[in-house]
TrEMBL record:
Coiled coil: none annotated. This is BRCT domain-containing protein. It is found in: Membrane. Residues 83-179 form the BRCT domain. The keyword ATP-binding does not apply. It comes from Nocardioides cremeus. It comes from the Bacteria. Residues 1-21 are annotated as: Disordered. Keywords: Membrane. PANTHER family: OUTER MEMBRANE PROTEIN RV1973 (PTHR37042:SF4). The keyword Membrane applies. PROSITE patterns: BRCT.
Amino acid sequence: MTEERDGSELTPSADSRPRGRRTAVVRTLLSAVLVAALALAVERGLAWRDAERREQARADVVEAAGDEVVGLITISARTTDEDLEELIEGATATFQDDLREQADRLRQEVVENEVEATGEVVSAGVVSLEDEEATVIVAARGTVDNRSARQPEPRSYRLEVELQRVEDSWLVSALRFVA
């Protein structure tokens, strides 16, 4: 049996081989673009997560520093023991020892002079923040009333607060009044 031919060949056309190559090239390029886009999305996601963690750490150190400053400048002859204990709880072990050494003298002065002091944080800013250490400047204002004052006296405070991460908490390791 012989097959008749009409003059056309049964070989692949000249266009079909390059089209197959073009399709493979296009698929390869699309795959490369997809992989690059995925890599970029992962990198951006990790960068966003890192920025969120850093911002949360900044908020945490500002809150811890502010709480300790308010604890320091808000004290009452009626609640001295509780006020001092709260202040001590927000400190590192070394700073707790320093505060305990001064607590009896401070308690005596507050009670004898019938001190009523209140305060609030006006502003705070992070000076430095590392994985385990931070420094925050806190500006606060308050009033101090005692038995020798005619009326409560306004006060302004500027403190440099050093903090250390202890487990999952930021604790104060040093407080300094600054100008």
